[in-house]
Q: What sequence folds into this?
């Protein structure tokens, strides 16, 4: 037989448990709209009878001791989290590149407005007019104006690209690197708080949710791999330790070769957060405009210094970022397509293309207008310094010496005293060179484009259009996948009002039932205590 | 799979956004009927569209060039008609056709006066302008001076005597050389003063890198100028003008007795200076003749090329390939004749109409020539005058046939323009009906999505619990 008041304990455990459940249900319902909130559930188990398996165990008929509230748990799948973060990095990567390329496209778009193509055609048109209706001051001035306008359009396009470049550099610095450092420090601080809470005994579920939300945000910027390990601190106490490592674009932790303090080669992970230790990123820009992001590791080597992923130019660390918006910024700013032997075409590719076009235009026109053997004495286009060797899209302009009569209309030797050089054979050559002559544009030993100059100018915006088109498709696919993963996460973790409503009813009934059981036991005890053995009392 | 309200909200939100996005796109399309707003919307269509636009622009250029040239040709043709009439009147019985053995001197002077007036009219007509171009100046149509001028009753075409080809401005020579693997020429203009004296000589430029200074040597009819390896064109010009130092060009020529006054070399000029003054003088391939006679044939057959869409191309020397552009030069020299011919009777008569008329007036006014002899003497000239008239008629019909070619090309260009515009429309413009239908459909879908959402996303179990 068991103790008299045993039943009360059973009832009490039932009531308490029902109240826990109700409170947790209430917590879930009130947090239905909290970002990143994972629904919670009480973990309960039946209490086995006491004295089970002991020497003086009461015998065959043993009743359990009620319900034990073991704790509160979150319903969350860390594997889905991992998938989500990897996908988030990919998605944000393409999205960032897409935004920047669309900015560039607005600069170079000539579908509905007048741009380089139109100005180039104007120049040809004015030259054609010269041959048809004869030379006079008015007509040569028109050619000069058209040439000047073309040079100005080059300048404008170059300036706009330069603005986009400095904007993206700013974004990388302030909204990339600084934000990541912010997040890393917040995550490590939260880890500290969670550790204190766990030491005190509670699993700190809400803090965990907050930390997960921060890690999700971090995954936009760099691709990471999160590992949670258990640490045994006392006989039955384990704490969790969260580490964040830099990962490749599939979510697998990267290892880098390095040397330790004694110079021996080792391979290690790149650790961004380890418990309450954190690493950081730093941004630097070289004198040639190239940007570099370097990583200071959270781990320390054997002499107590943090590992740093830098080398002389800080360029090495750039190769470690495989997805995320930081990688996208770095690629936009540093990769110049064929001009830097990379596949990716960043802002620099389009800047360099414009430069190549400007140089080629100047080269062709200047040679056509020259009258000396070396082919360089009457340039039509020069740079701001007046020279022709350093022409770029930004500094091209018409020659300061271009006055009336500067344009060479004929290079045939005239009969002296006979104005044969009033023919326009040279102008016809200029027109032919600009509109129907094929040129091969090269950089170093790579051929960029073969075709007429007009086609080359049109090629820049169609290349860009194709890049954007295919990137937009890729981005849409990534987003779709991201949404799918998020939906599956929600399916597991988010709160469903209907479900909680049913829980309310269930636990309310359970509470009612336990309370009724309590009153029943109470009555039984009342009967036993007050109504038994009073025979013979008056 | 467990479905929560949150998931439904998110899904509904993103689907509604997509629908609204599509609505916006079709709306944009229905507003401006374009198939793409930016190249990235449809890169392949955009590439096609830009290509077609380039062709359209070029076509417009060709049409504009063509119409300018055509108008000039129309004017030229009618002017040549007038010139032909002048010659016809000159040969008529009113004028030279009326020369008989019985005309007296005053009648002959009357005829001569008439012919003088016709000569003036002839030159005025030949100097006609269209816009700011001289119609009959050949390749020099944009020049500031009129092509035909009369000096001492002799007609000159751009300073060249139409009968003999003699250059009014003196003798010159053209040196051919190669620089940067391209053929180039350099001209030395000796001017009037010594031009006549140097006629018949040839000049050669050789380069001697060991020489310290420029020098001249003469052997027979060949003048050799030796330059150092660093002589520039301006150096050479200064040397050629040098009549003071002992080795100066003028001094050497005077010493050899070729010219009478050494100072006359002061007017020698090299072509292209001062622009190419710093070019190093290259050796000429051979000795070039110094002459003041210009080849009238090549002068009369000059070409000026205008791009009217025949596929303009230049060959490796930079010259236009003949079939790929339109020759818009009309040579007045060719129309009115040049040079001299000897007929079968041994008479040398000028071909040029003006020179013929001048011959007539001088014979008419010659008091020592009696009328019967006059008739006999003017007979070969009358024949030549008839030939000159035929020449003008031929020139006029040549201009006419080139004008016909232009008209045909104009029609061709117009049809090309129509085709290209149609193609451009196909690529860039959306059919009005399609655009509006798409927009209406999208609008309907969007409305349906809104209605569905508002009913599904409302009730939960809470609403039914008491």
A:
């Amino acid at each position: 037989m068991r103790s008299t008041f045993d039943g009360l304990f059973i009832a009490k455990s039932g009531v308490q448990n029902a109240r826990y459940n109700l409170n947790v249900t209430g917590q879930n319902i009130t947090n239905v709209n909290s970002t990143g909130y994972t629904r919670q559930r009480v973990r309960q188990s039946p209490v086995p009878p006491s004295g089970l398996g002991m020497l003086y165990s009461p015998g065959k008929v043993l009743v359990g001791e009620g319900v034990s509230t073991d704790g509160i748990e979150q319903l969350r799948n860390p594997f889905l989290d991992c998938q989500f973060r990897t996908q988030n990095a990919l998605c944000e990567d393409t999205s960032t590149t897409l935004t920047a390329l669309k900015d560039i496209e607005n600069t170079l778009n000539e579908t509905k407005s007048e741009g380089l193509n139109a100005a180039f055609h104007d120049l040809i048109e004015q030259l054609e007019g010269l041959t048809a209706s004869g030379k006079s001051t008015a007509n040569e001035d028109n050619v000069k104006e058209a040439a000047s306008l073309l040079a100005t359009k080059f300048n404008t396009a170059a300036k706009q690209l330069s603005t986009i470049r400095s904007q993206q550099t700013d974004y990388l610095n302030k909204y990339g690197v600084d934000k990541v450092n912010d997040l890393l420090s917040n995550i490590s601080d939260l880890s500290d708080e969670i550790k204190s809470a766990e030491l005190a005994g509670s699993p700190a579920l809400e803090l965990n949710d907050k930390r997960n939300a921060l890690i999700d945000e971090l995954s936009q910027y760099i691709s990471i791999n999160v590992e949670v390990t258990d640490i045994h601190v006392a006989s039955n106490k384990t704490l969790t330790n969260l580490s964040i490592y830099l990962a490749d674009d599939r979510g697998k932790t990267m290892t880098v070769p390095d040397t330790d303090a004694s110079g021996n080669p080792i391979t290690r992970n790149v650790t961004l957060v380890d418990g309450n230790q954190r690493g950081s990123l730093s941004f630097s820009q070289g004198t040639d405009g190239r940007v570099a992001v370097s990583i200071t590791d959270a781990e320390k080597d054997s002499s107590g210094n943090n590992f740093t992923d830098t080398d002389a130019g800080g360029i090495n660390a750039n190769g470690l970022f495989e997805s995320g918006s930081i990688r996208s910024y770095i690629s936009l700013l540093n990769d110049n397509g064929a001009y830097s032997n990379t596949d990716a075409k960043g802002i620099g590719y389009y800047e360099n293309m414009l430069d190549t076009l400007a140089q080629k235009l100047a080269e062709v026109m200047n040679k056509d207008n020259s009258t000396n053997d070396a082919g360089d004495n009457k340039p039509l286009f020069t740079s701001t310094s007046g020279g022709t060797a350093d022409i770029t899209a930004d500094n091209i302009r018409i020659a300061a010496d271009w006055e009336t009569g500067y344009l060479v209309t004929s290079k045939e030797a005239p009969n002296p005293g006979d104005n044969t050089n009033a023919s326009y054979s040279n102008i016809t050559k200029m027109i032919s060179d600009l509109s129907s002559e094929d040129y091969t544009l090269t950089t170093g030993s790579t051929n960029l484009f073969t075709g007429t100059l007009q086609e080359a100018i049109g090629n820049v915006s169609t290349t860009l259009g194709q890049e954007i088109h295919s990137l937009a498709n890729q981005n849409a696919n990534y987003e779709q996948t991201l949404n799918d993963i998020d939906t599956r996460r929600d399916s597991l973790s988010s709160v469903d009002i209907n479900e909680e409503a049913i829980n309310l009813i269930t636990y309310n009934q359970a509470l009612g039932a336990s309370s009724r059981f309590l009153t029943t036991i109470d009555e039984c005890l009342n009967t036993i205590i007050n109504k038994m053995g009073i025979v013979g009392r008056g | 799979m467990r479905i929560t309200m949150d998931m439904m909200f998110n899904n509904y939100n993103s689907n509604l956004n997509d629908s609204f996005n599509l609505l916006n796109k079709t709306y944009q399309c229905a507003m401006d009927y374009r198939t793409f707003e930016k190249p990235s919307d449809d890169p392949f269509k955009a590439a096609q569209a830009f290509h077609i636009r380039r062709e359209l622009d070029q076509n417009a250029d060709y049409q504009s060039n063509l119409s300018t040239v055509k108008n000039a040709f129309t004017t030229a043709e009618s002017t040549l008609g007038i010139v032909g009439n002048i010659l016809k009147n000159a040969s008529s019985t009113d004028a030279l056709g009326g020369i008989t053995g019985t005309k007296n001197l005053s009648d002959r002077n009357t005829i001569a006066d008439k012919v003088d007036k016709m000569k003036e009219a002839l030159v005025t007509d030949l100097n006609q302008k269209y816009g700011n171009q001289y119609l009959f100046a050949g390749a020099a149509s944009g020049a500031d001076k009129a092509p035909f001028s009369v000096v001492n009753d002799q007609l000159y075409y751009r300073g060249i005597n139409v009968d003999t080809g003699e250059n009014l401005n003196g003798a010159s020579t053209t040196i051919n050389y190669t620089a940067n693997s391209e053929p180039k020429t350099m001209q030395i203009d000796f001017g009037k003063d010594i031009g006549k004296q140097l006629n018949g000589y040839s000049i050669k430029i050789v380069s001697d890198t060991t020489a310290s200074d420029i020098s001249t040597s003469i052997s027979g009819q060949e003048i050799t100028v030796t330059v150092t390896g660093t002589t520039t064109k301006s150096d050479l010009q200064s040397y050629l003008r040098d009549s003071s130092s002992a080795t100066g060009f003028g001094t050497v020529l005077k010493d050899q007795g070729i010219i009478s006054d050494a100072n006359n070399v002061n007017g020698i000029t090299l072509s292209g200076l001062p622009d190419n003054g710093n070019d190093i003088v290259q050796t000429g391939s051979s000795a070039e003749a110094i002459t003041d006679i210009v080849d009238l044939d090549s002068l009369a057959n000059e070409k000026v090329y205008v791009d009217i869409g025949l596929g303009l191309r230049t060959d490796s020397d930079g010259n236009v390939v003949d079939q790929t552009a339109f020759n818009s030069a009309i040579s007045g020299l060719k129309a009115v004749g040049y040079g001299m011919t000897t007929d079968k009777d041994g008479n040398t008569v000028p071909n040029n109409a003006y020179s013929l008329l001048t011959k007539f007036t001088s014979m008419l006014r010659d008091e020592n020539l009696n009328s019967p002899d006059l008739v006999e003497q003017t007979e070969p000239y009358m024949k030549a005058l008839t030939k000159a008239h035929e020449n003008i008629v031929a020139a006029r019909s040549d201009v006419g046939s080139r004008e016909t070619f232009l008209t045909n090309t104009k029609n061709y260009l117009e049809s090309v323009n129509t085709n290209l515009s149609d193609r451009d429309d196909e690529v860039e413009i959306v059919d009005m009906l399609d655009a509006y239908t798409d927009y209406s459909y999208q609008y309907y879908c969007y409305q349906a999505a809104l209605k569905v959402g508002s009913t599904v996303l409302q009730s939960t179990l809470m609403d039914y619990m008491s």
Q: What stands out?
A: Chain A is about 50% helix and 15% strand.
